[in-house]
Amino acid sequence: MSSADHGPGRFKVVLNDEDQYSIWPVGRENPSGWRDEGTGGSREECLEHIGRVWTDMRPRGVRLRMASSSPQDR
């Protein structure tokens, strides 16, 4: 994000430890447990980015448990 991206109506994509995405206003401190993902822009641009990259909405912990369980355990 460049300094021009810090104006009103600018957002950034944030990510938590469970690989869940959200948007947050630029210039505000991230909520506890969330970190910058690296993408910024308008609300619509950020939501479009999330739509492209967040293809499995299950939290990371659930995905890992499901991947390590046998098919009959699911």
Structure description:
This protein has one domain (3-69): Structural Genomics, Unknown Function 30-nov-00 1gh9 Mol_id (Rubredoxin-like). Helix content is 27%, strand content 26%. It contains two helices and three strands. It has helices at 43-53, 60-68; strands spanning 11-16, 21-25, 34-41. Strands 2-1-3 form a three-stranded antiparallel sheet, covered by helices on one side. A hairpin with a 4-residue loop joins β1 and β2. It is elongated.
Quick overview:
By secondary structure, the protein is of the alpha+beta class. It is built from two helices and three strands.
Q: Could you name the key traits of this structure?
A:
74 residues, alpha+beta, Rubredoxin-like, three-stranded antiparallel β-sheet, 3 strands, 26% strand, disordered N terminus
Write the layout of secondary structure elements.
Layout: E1 11-16, E2 21-25, E3 34-41, H1 43-53, H2 60-68
